[in-house]
Every structure is written in C-alpha cells, then in structure tokens.
Amino acid sequence: MKVIVGISDMKIGTKPDEELVTYSLGSCIGVALWDPVAKVGALLHYMLPDSSIDTDKAVQKPFMFADTGVPRMFKEIYKHGALKERMKVYIVGGSQVMDDSGMFNIGKRNQMIIRKMFWKNNVNVTKEDVGGAVNRTITLNVGTGNVKLKISGQGEVEL
Amino acid sequence: MSRIEEIVNIANHIPPFPKVAMQVMKMLEDPKVQPKDLAEVIQYDSAITANLLKTCNAAYFGLSRKVSSLDEALVLLGQDALKDILIASSSARFYKGGAGEGYQLEQGDLWKHSVAVAIMSKSISRHFKGVDPGAAFTAGLLHDIGKRFLSSFVASDFKKIMDRTYIDGLSFMAAEREILGMDHAELGGLILQKWDFSEEMILAVKLHHDPQALLKDPLTALVAMANTLVISLGVGVGADGLSGAMQGEGLKRFGITSLDLDRHMSNLVLEMERAEEMMGLSK
Fold first, then answer.
1. Is A28 considered catalytic here?
2. What is the ipTM of this complex?
3. B64 burial class (0-12, 13-18, 19+ CB within 10 angstroms)?
4. Using CB atoms, which residue from A7, A61, A101 is nearest to B233?
5. Strand A136-141 versus strand A2-4 pairing type
6. Are residues A135 and B259, on separate chains, in Cβ contact within 8 Å?
7. Predicted TM-score (pTM) of this structure
8. A29 and A110 Cβ atoms separated by less than 8 Å
9. 10 Å Cβ neighbour count for A148?
10. What is the pLDDT of residues B223-261, one digit of tens each?
11. A153 and B162: CB-CB below 8 Å?
C-alpha cells in the first residue's frame, strides 16, 4: 500500500506491505529512516531550514522546517522501537536553480542544516543523492527497507 | 513544413481566449459597471459560469457565505477576486487532460503549477511597485501556456533534449530552442500576443526563464521570481527540473531579501490548500 507524504509532512510506516513515497523534491529534502529490527520506517519532506522565520507555522506545520521537523521525526520513530545505532538514514533532494548571488540557494541551505544536525547528534547517513538541478521522488519500502529514487525524466534506481 | 513553421502555425491557429472573459475584463475598467450587466455577459459562457460558481466558494477568496447563483457571486465578490476567478475559469480549458505530458508531467500538474505561480505572483506583488495584483495573477497563470502546445514536440525529441540538458549541461530551455527551434516561453509570448494581452504581459511570459529577468520590467521580474520559487518547491515540475539559471541579485532593487523568499514559500503551501477548488478546474 502506498502512503503519500506531502510537502511539509512526515509519515511513519509500520506494516510490511507499506510503501512511503514523497513526490517532486526540488530544493526540499526528503529524509528516510528505517530500522531493520523494529521493521519501522519514516519519511519526511521538509521545505525550509529554519522555523524562526515564522514561529506560528512551526507550531501549525512542524514538518515544514528542518529544525523542527527532523527532531520530531526521530522522536516519533523511537516510539515504535527504532534505535539510532541501527537505523538506516537516507537523504535526497536539495536541488536548486543556478544563481551566483546565492539568493535562490534554498537547496543548499536545506542540505547544510541537516548535515549540521546529523553531525551534532552522531547520525550517520547511509546513502544520499542531493544537489544538482533535478526533480526527485523517493520511495521507502517498510517491509524490506529498500529505497528507490526516481529522477524526473531519467527513470528509477535503487538508492 | 519545417518544425519551427509547424510550431508557429500552432500559435497562429490557437483557439481564442474566451471572448466573454475579455469582454468582462473590459467592462470592469468602468468603475460604475453593475453586477447585473456583468451577469448578462457571463451567463452566455456556461463553462465559465459553472467554474465561477465552483471557485468562488474557495477559502482563498474568503467569502462569508456559500454562493449558489451567478448574480449572488457577482454582488459578493470584489472586482479583484472576480477578475482572478474569471481568468482562472477561462484558462483552465487549455490545461485539460495530458497537457504537459511531453515534459513528463502527470495529469493536472501543469495546471497545478500554473495556479501555484499565479497565487505566488499575486502574493509577492506588494514588493513590486506599480504592478497590479490582478495582472500578476494572470501572468502567473499563463506563463507556461507555451508548454501546453510545445508538449508533443518535446515528447517526440525527448531523448535528444534530455541528453543536451543532463549530459552536455545546457538548460532544458536552451535545448528546446536548439532542437525544436523555439522554447516554451517564446511560444507562450506568441500565444499571448495572438490573444491580445498587453505588452507587459507578453514580455513577462516570454522572459520568465531569462537569467536576467529580475533586472527587467517589474511584471517580468515578478513572474520570474514566482516561477523560480514554485519550481524550487517542486510544484508541478517535470523532466526540466530546476534546470537553468536565474540571477538573484536583481531582487535587491525591489528590496527583497532571502528571508522574504522563505516566508513566501512557506505561505504558498497554506494558500494552495485554501485554493483547492481552483486546482480542480482543469479536470
């Protein structure tokens, strides 16, 4: 069964026949977590690095921002028995249009914040596919932990 | 016929933009125009009337009660909202079915992208002095109309275009131009010309991917900024992805900071939820 994760959302999957999918990641970032023992997965689609731009929205839509969404995602998956040491961690997205001035570097800022957060909290990234100018879709199979990456116009591969 | 002639031929034989919409827009220039006069004209286009009733109840337009007749809608809606709905109801017919398939967009995606850019254009219009929010909405809604008509050409040369983009590093637009003889923005400009839209509107559509767009005419800059943000958010984005350049330093002349960009992006997600009825119009 397909469970769709929209922009600024996060879903936990606990059933082996579930597939968590998030479409059309441009400068946004998709984070997938999977615990091989607890057989639980999670997928987040955040769009901006920093919730301080709008604290009301951070309450209303915590998964919109990396700084509020990522910690909350980890908290949620721990509730289902996942352990940090065991978890596979994938990040994809963070594309951007070319701009020397850096004004439109939302993708890069989105990448930087998650690296910083993971580094601080000793989270190792298993695999990633970030940057460039492509549009990505990521699917996590809750039963097997397989992660598929689809790049628009270029087909689907296993990440 | 050469391919470029074929493409130009499409622009020359394009179905007209609904007459009723153009006529009502003209009538709205007269501040003394009465709702009943507008209703008299609008009711002759049943598709527009139906769409108008469907959309005016969207939370986006903020009406205090449910509207069920055209007369009632015209009394309750302000002129600005009426213009937006009229343009959206009239444009939707061009985005039906697999419009944008050649760009590997799913059904409805090109319309969704267009509505998102229209909403974004309107909400950033306050940064652009002298730009009418309604004009911003319209230009946003129609900026990718060229894709609708270039789609089948892109489909037949898809591999060539992708190779030029992702192997040779050209922007998708430049590859379109090189291989098809024309890109979707230029074709969009021709279509708007054919439809008798204003010079500034034609320019905004034609130049929305120009890397220097932010240094140009305010409406051109506005649509380029709105489109860049919506593409970054991945709303209705196909195989062309985020390919291409947009020089952001031009935003400074409008006093726009990167904090503003973040705020507008975060607002869009909520505004789109409130505009769901508009998203459904191309079905």
1. yes
2. 0.95
3. exposed
4. A7
5. unpaired
6. no
7. 0.95
8. yes
9. 15
10. 999 999 999 999 999 999 999 999 999 999 999 999 999
11. yes
